[in-house]
Amino acid sequence: MKEKVLIVGAGPGDPELITLKGKKAIEEADVIVYAGSLVNREILKYNRRNAKIYNSATMDLEEIVEIMVEGVKKGLNVVRLHSGDPSIYGAIKEQIDELRKHGIDVEIIPGVTSLSAAASSLKVELTLPKVSQTVIITRPEGRTPKPKGESIKELSRHGSTMAIFLGVGMIEKVVSDLIEGGYRRDTPVAVVYKASWKDEKIVKGTLEDIVPKVKEANIRRSALIIVGDVLDPKNYDYSKLYDKNFETGFRKRKK
Ligand SMILES: C[S@@+](CC[C@H](N)C(=O)[O-])C[C@H]1O[C@@H](n2cnc3c(N)ncnc32)[C@H](O)[C@@H]1O
């Protein structure tokens, strides 16, 4: 399979948060199918070839695949642009499988996920020694069912950092599941709307008071819910990596 589509991670919104490789792919594209609900249109301005642009938000899978196949068969550079990193809730597997039926392969160029952008905006480390060394990426069950054992309630028993995508529209349910699952009511939580965009909003609170704050801010979509003590740690350990009494493969212990 020589013919291919480039699946590109557009990053979280700020047009400068795309990889150099992703930007180059957009510059050289003849056809771009972009996920219009969350890809910043500013990124399309990098294109230098007057590409034909399609917004996949208004299309179904069949239509998306048809446009990509048609472009590739004409020998054009086809880019499929997804928000953040395509591997996270990107619905790319089905596109890859459908393209393969036409003998077309893909190359995937990763992107900066909105989770990284939100953590940067919050100026937090998601994995703090003694607080949490685990980040759970999940979503509430909606029309897409979740496999057994993956409900927010069940995942909550770990008490680790949790990032909830696609969930702000049902924040009451998310918060009650988090509490029922085991998080303390005073666990810090942040909701980041359109991280890295010019109209980004951040709402901070605890599981006790976040719901009215989010309603007040009128955030209903395009936001991440991040929960865990890493957001406001009372006590944590410095890492061993830079501890002068600790030796690593790159650094000897000081005598
Ligand atoms: C279909 S998923 C795509 C996620 C994307 N692949 C990523 O890596 O960020 C869409 C959801 O991602 C989250 N999201 C995407 N971009 C965001 C941003 N800039 N700020 C906050 N949340 C964002 C929201 O929860 C949104 O409902």
CATH architecture of the largest domain: 2-Layer Sandwich
Please write the string of helix (H) and strand (E) elements.
EHEEHEHEHEHEHEEHE
- Tally the structural domains: 2
**Helix content percent band:** 10-25%
User: What CATH first level of the largest domain would be assigned?
Assistant: Alpha Beta
Low-confidence stretches: none
Q: If helices are DSSP runs of H or I spanning 4 or more residues, what is the number of helices?
A: 7
Mean pLDDT: 95
Q: What is the strand tally?
A: 10
CATH superfamily of the largest domain: Tetrapyrrole methylase, C-terminal domain
Categorize the overall geometry. Answer: globular
Q: What would you report as the Rg, rounded to the nearest angstrom? A: 21 Å
